[in-house]
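JOB MANIFEST
job_type = single_chain_structure
chain_count = 1
residues = 363
[input]
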Amino acid sequence: MITNDLETFLQQRKEQHLYRSRQINDNKQLIFCSNDYLGLSSQNYQLNQQIGSSAAHLVCGHHDIHHELELALANFVRYKKTLLFSTGYMANLGVISALMGRNDAVFLDKLSHASLGDGAILSRAKLFRYPHNDLQVLENQLKKSTSKRKLIISDGVFSMDGDLAKLPQLIELSKKYQAWLMIDDAHGLGVLGENGRGTLEYYQCNQEDIHILIGTLGKAFGTFGAFVAGSETLIEYLIQTARSYIYTTAFPPIIAQATLYNLETAQKESWRREKLFKNINYFKSKTQHLPLMPSDTPIQPLLCKTNEQALNANKYLKENNLWVSAIRPPTVPTPRLRITLTATHSFENIDFLVNKLNDFFKP
């Protein structure tokens, strides 16, 4: 009975062109869907840390290099303190479920990452989703809420659209309605701002404005893991209460060392960000005739008419040694190719991609 139900579901997914398939990265294709925005994931390291951390942070898994990385990350984002998590997903689940409960209210942009919604559901707080960047609806929701503890959550850079949250207005609403403000800046850190400090630097915000900052290490910093930045009180509270921090093995010390190296490299080698934005601008100048969504970030979504068209475009590009992911519902409301630019792409690479896009999407 159960097997039959699962088989029916999978068959329906295939018929609707929504079936997800893993592709093996054999390094033989030119990749335009990576989150390795600064090209740091392929660095050559001379590492001397052990691989396994051996236990959870609160047992004996918290090594000197973890502590050093937390200090470096706090200094980088200009927050009092940071706390490492094994993944961004675990960070979001841990923070929201630790801070919010049944009598509280969470206000979440509808296009925010899935882990933020899952964290809100896990917390059992009342969940209010507002239309993407529609802050009038958000204010109406805040105004009607009778919960004493309120938490506004948004991505900094939206991972599938590439646009930015309206941070100045979110900060204003947070202060007006005495709500905490939490920003997941997974796709902004390392990329935006004069020094790559992300969406907060882009908008010239600080810890007093954004109470909780989530950052991931597997995107612009090219390794793995995540961190939460906040006040000393917040971080100490999370150490006591965040279940996805307390009850899991600390991520490998060797990864912490590699991340520290990449963080230092990203700050020293500003040419990486400069090259990235040259590539973004070059790509946009060559694709004005294509149905791209408006974005000034490395994420450049190209809208497709149907799920089938998105899959066919993905297949055509793959046949030409180009790897661009087809993103479809329920991940996004509208099917698309999620094209991402990195500092490692050349103009010749981009020209090749644009030519193949033109071939497929020609009138």
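[summary]
The radius of gyration is 21 Å.
The first strand starts at residue 30 and ends at 31.
exit_status = 0
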